[in-house]
Write a structure and sequence with these properties.
Number of strands: 6
Strand order of the largest sheet: 3-4-2-5
């Protein structure tokens, strides 16, 4: 930590235009990926059947897939669940009853083996997935709206636009990565994106708070100098926050198993993206919109400044006469 004993002097705003252009290009690419390639929606959104099978010992997933294919379930998705002896099988929607399906799946994957046990069979209808998609979209829109209203009230509308742009940028970038890598998009992924919105917004608020304090306190410095100073002052805090969060997410990714796989992947990508979006997207866009010191002055100081300007103008007019 002695490295950061003194506030660094990195000129972040010098590359603000490059950062905005790169972010715009990556966001556009992510949107195109989602539109044309789509997302690998899980059973929570598409509907289908979830089957959990317990084997007496460790089993290879490839063998389970081959057994399912021979049993007539070629499109089943197989993954470990909690350990290498428990397998979670996701099947497309079908018209079979729970008893019929469980007996067929058990016969397919447990042929010739003793001790294979069917733990559970769950059916998820497509109408449930449609409802989850609708409510998830509404939850994201409400989150964006409330955050924009809070920042506009707490700071200024130019900061609010920058913050919402950064949040949308982060969410779209995560969706683009999920589409590119074909990681399953389920309820835990949606939860990760909502958590990321709060995480990214918190990082942005910290920088905005420091920018506002420095703009009011440092009257002679330019806006670019104040923003650079503010980002450098919060750099140590940002590094510690991002590193500790990434450590937790990496631990979830490596040790958490398949249940939290998509959640941890989304959070890792989101934390990395939020690292630069809080500087080059939210703050950079606010600067590009022309935020100035007068926008952040308290009302009484604005009134005093207006009175002083009017008085100076009147004195100048009198001197000219």
């Amino acid at each position: 930590m002695k490295i950061f004993a003194n506030v660094p002097n990195i000129d972040f705003m010098r590359q603000r235009k490059v950062g905005l252009v790169v972010s715009a290009l990556l966001t556009t690419a992510s949107i195109l990926l989602v539109l044309f390639r789509g997302l690998n929606f899980g059973i929570d959104f598409t509907g289908g059947v979830l089957v959990e099978v317990q084997f007496p010992q460790s089993v290879q997933l490839e063998k389970v897939r081959e057994d399912l294919g021979r049993g007539g379930y070629e499109h089943g998705i197989v993954q470990y669940f909690g350990g290498s002896s428990t397998v979670l099988i996701r099947l497309p929607p079908n018209q079979e009853t729970s008893a019929s399906l469980s007996s067929k799946v058990l016969a397919a994957v447990g042929a010739g083996e003793a001790g294979v046990e069917m733990r559970r069979v769950e059916f998820v209808g497509p109408q449930v997935g449609e409802e989850l998609s609708e409510k998830g979209s509404i939850a994201m829109l409400v989150a964006f709206g409330l955050i924009a209203a809070f920042i506009a009230f707490r700071f200024e509308w130019k900061f609010a636009i920058g913050a919402i742009a950064a949040l949308i940028h982060d969410a779209v970038m995560v969706l683009g990565f999920l589409s590119l890598t074909w990681v399953e998009f389920d309820l835990t992924t949606l939860a990760a994106i909502l958590a990321l919105i709060g995480y990214s917004n918190n990082e942005t608020i910290v920088i905005f708070d420091r920018v506002r304090e420095n703009l009011i306190r440092t009257r002679k410095a330019t806006v670019f100098e104040v923003v650079n100073l503010s980002v450098n002052q919060t750099l140590l805090r940002s590094i510690i926050t991002h590193v500790t969060t990434l450590l937790v997410c990496v631990a979830l990714f490596t040790l958490g198993g398949s249940t939290v796989h998509s959640f941890s992947v989304s959070m890792i990508v989101g934390v990395i993206v939020a690292t630069y979006s809080s500087i080059y997207v939210s703050t950079g866009l606010a600067v590009a919109l022309g935020v100035k010191r007068d926008d952040l002055l308290p009302p009484e100081e604005k009134d005093e400044k207006v009175k002083a300007e009017k008085l100076a103008k009147a004195e100048n007019d009198g001197a000219v006469v």
